Amino acid sequence: MDEEITIIDSNARNERIKNFFINNKKNLIIIFSIILVIIIGYLSFEKSKERTKIKLANQYNLALIDPSPKNKQKTIDEMVSVIKSNDATYSPLALYHLLDSNLLENNDEINTLFNELIEKTNLENEIKNLIIYKKALFNSDFVSENELLKILNPVINSESIWKSHALYLLAEFFYSKDEKQKAKEFFNQILVLPNASSTIKAESQKRLNRDLGE
Fold first, then answer.
1. Please, is 49 exposed, middle or buried when counting C-beta atoms within 10 Å of its C-beta (0-12, 13-18, 19+)?
2. pLDDT digits 0-9 by tens, 183-194
3. Minimal CA–CA distance to 148: which of 175, 125, 174, 112?
């Protein structure tokens, strides 16, 4: 008897499943179609990103092959193009190459490229903070106190590993301007910073002891 009941229940369950698929055939087809489109779209997107990455890598590497003066403008144009692609890997590398090779002379153009990375490129926080610090370092020889502080504020007001570097840059900036009290304040901030670079901390203490009467 129990065996017969089990067979009946099994048949009833199979019938319900069959009826469910029959009654919802249209909706199920739509759902499966949407899922298939999403999967195909995702795979296509990933493939497109991979092709773009390869293209940028080739563009970047080709621009490095011939650094001769006659190809200077071509190299600049290629690197600027890579920067404006807003790629998290190759855009920063392209700007670093332009700066390290002294290929650009216009400060406004260089700052525009820095801003392209900082404002438009999807970078990890610490990479972005490093680029902000590099921008401040580049500008420190010719901008005002307020402008330098404005550039560095995002790093100074964070817990970034680059915070001690930013504070040290400001301290040295004020020391070079003979504003020793302001310099001391920034050097002292470094000494109490929990995640300060050990090298930066040692240099700050040395500066305070040797030149600022600490």
1. exposed
2. 999 999 999 999
3. 174
